[in-house]
Structures are given as structure tokens and as C-alpha cells.
Specification:
By secondary structure, this protein is α+β, with helices and mostly antiparallel strands. It is built from six helices and ten strands, in the order αβββββααααβββββα. Helices cover 21% and strands 15% of the residues. Strand 1 (34-37) and strand 2 form a beta hairpin.
């Protein structure tokens, strides 16, 4: 066996072990990630709170300066939101590619994603995070329901405890984890086909870019708070929002954990056709609820 083959075998074995532990076959400590399944049948991963260095001094100017961020724990969807999940809440699907129910939704406006979060919250008897009576559907971070991740939560989950720009630590392994410009054949793919990151989260790199809650400000890292940052205040109408992770059309460089992009929300655009914008949900959960969700999986 060549050295490269041994390296690939070790990576696959490590990913398999990670998924086994997350699935509950082996008890995990409270401080470690673990998988749960929601009452509506959606697999999520509990991402424990912690501290990490956000940003990069070697990437684009808006990724600097690197700074320490401390986050509370949260649940994050194991996969990007798919057509079959979107259909469960009976919302019209705007996507270009609807030939496979487990492909991620795309062409999704920022507000469409927030509406899905609210509908999914109501489906499970949770308090919606978004106030639909306000202009920007203001987020109540104390509510029990689903919402979009903050930019800090997304990067923390993507890095999965590693400081490198890609979770694998090796840029050459991106093909194992992502559908991007070099291998996606100019289209989306069913979620979960690529290797998950170290915390069991799939498709954070590539496939579709993922909406975050934050307003995009290229200079925000210069004054971002250290604890649970929620992004800058809204500067006005049609502000750009952050998308993360790169997509099926992105270069490898755009699929780094620290790479940032601002995108118009499309909320005021009747012909929004950005077929690389999707999302996944997060929510906070109390320890007793986490234990119930985890026990139900076993």
C-alpha cells in the first residue's frame, strides 16, 4: 500500500469512527459533539460551546484580523436543507434542480430561509425566532425555535476544532468533502455523499453556499465582540447578508472555513435566481432537552 493510500484509509477510518460516536453507539461526553434526531425527523449535531480563533491573516482582507470568539453550545443540521424537508412545511420551492428530493434547496432568498425556520419551529411546537411583523424579521436569540446560524457559529462548526483553513488540514482532500467547481459538473448533488467533517457535519464546503444571520460588513472583525457575536446592526434597506462555505461553482479557495461573502438577500427581487444559495438551521436547547433527544436516538 502506498503512503497516499494509507493516508486515505486512515482518514476514512477516522471519519467512520467519528460518525459512530456521534450516532450514540459509544457514549460521548457532554463537551463532545453528538447526533440527535428532532421530533420531525431531522438529524442534527450538538455542537458544544467553546472558544476558537475566527478569521485569517492569510486570506482575503475581510477575513482579518484573526480574533478569539467564545460561543455557547447549539444544535446544527447535519445536512443542508433539502427539497423533501422544504416540502414538509408546505412552502413553494424556488430551486432550479428539483430532480432529486435529497438535493439541497437553492435560489432561496434570505427571508425564505427564515420563513422555513419559523414553520419548522411551529411544526415541533417551538417558539419561532423570527418576528414576521418587523421589516427584517428580527431574530429573538432567546427563543427555542430554529434560525439561521450566526457567522461565528458557522465557522466554528466548520473548523470542527482545527485551526486550518479546511477541516481536513489538506487542501487536496477537498474532493472527499465537497462538491465544488472541479468535481460538481456544474450542478448540485444529494446531501451526505461526501465525507463529513470531524464533528459529523456534511457539505459545509461546496454544494450550496449557506445563508447566515449576520449583516455582511468587510470591516466587522476589527470590532466584533468576543462572546456570541451576532454581526453588525442593519445599515438600512437591502443590506447584504453573509453566505458561507462556497458552492458547486466555487473555487477551492472559496471553500475555506474562513472565506466570507456578502450576498443581496433577494427579498425585494421578484426574479431572484442565485442558484447557489441554500442554508441549514441551528437552535439552542436546554441540557434536559438535549438528553431527551439523545436518548430517543438510541
Amino acid at each position: 500500500m502506498t503512503a497516499l493510500a494509507r493516508l486515505n484509509a486512515m482518514a476514512v477510518a477516522a471519519a467512520t469512527l467519528c460518525c459512530t460516536v456521534l450516532a450514540g453507539d459509544k457514549p460521548a461526553e457532554t463537551a463532545n459533539p453528538f447526533e440527535v434526531v428532532t421530533p420531525s425527523g431531522v438529524p442534527m449535531v450538538y455542537v458544544p460551546g467553546g472558544e476558537f480563533t475566527m478569521g485569517s491573516s492569510q486570506g482575503n482582507p475581510d477575513e482579518a484580523p484573526p480574533h478569539q470568539v467564545k460561543l455557547s453550545g447549539f444544535l446544527m443540521d447535519k445536512f443542508e436543507v433539502t427539497h423533501e424537508l422544504f416540502a414538509k412545511v408546505q412552502l413553494p420551492d424556488p430551486s432550479r434542480w428539483q430532480d432529486q428530493p435529497r438535493k439541497p434547496v437553492e435560489r432561496v432568498r434570505w427571508r425564505d430561509a427564515k420563513q422555513y425556520c419559523n414553520e419548522r419551529s411551529l411544526l415541533e411546537g417551538l417558539k419561532p425566532c423570527y418576528n414576521e411583523k418587523t421589516l427584517d424579521w428580527d431574530c429573538d436569540y432567546t427563543a427555542s425555535g430554529y434560525r439561521l446560524p450566526t457567522e461565528a457559529e458557522w465557522e466554528y462548526a466548520c473548523r470542527a476544532g482545527r485551526p486550518e483553513a479546511a477541516d481536513s488540514g489538506l487542501a487536496g482532500q477537498l474532493r472527499q468533502q465537497a462538491w465544488f467547481a472541479e468535481n460538481a459538473d456544474q450542478k448540485t448533488h444529494a446531501v451526505g455523499q461526501k465525507r463529513p467533517n470531524r464533528w459529523g457535519l456534511h457539505d459545509l464546503y461546496g454544494n450550496v453556499s449557506e445563508w447566515c444571520e449576520d449583516v455582511y460588513d468587510p470591516a466587522y472583525y476589527q470590532h466584533s465582540p468576543a462572546d456570541d457575536p451576532h454581526g453588525p446592526p442593519n445599515p438600512g434597506k437591502d443590506a447584504k447578508r453573509v453566505i458561507r462555505g462556497g458552492s458547486w461553482k466555487s473555487s477551492a479557495n472559496a471553500c475555506r472555513a474562513a472565506a466570507r461573502q456578502g450576498e443581496r438577500t433577494g427579498d425585494a427581487d421578484a426574479c431572484f435566481s442565485t442558484d447557489y444559495c441554500g442554508f441549514r438551521c441551528v437552535r439552542r436547547a436546554a441540557p434536559d432537552e438535549l438528553q431527551k433527544l439523545r436518548t430517543a436516538l438510541k
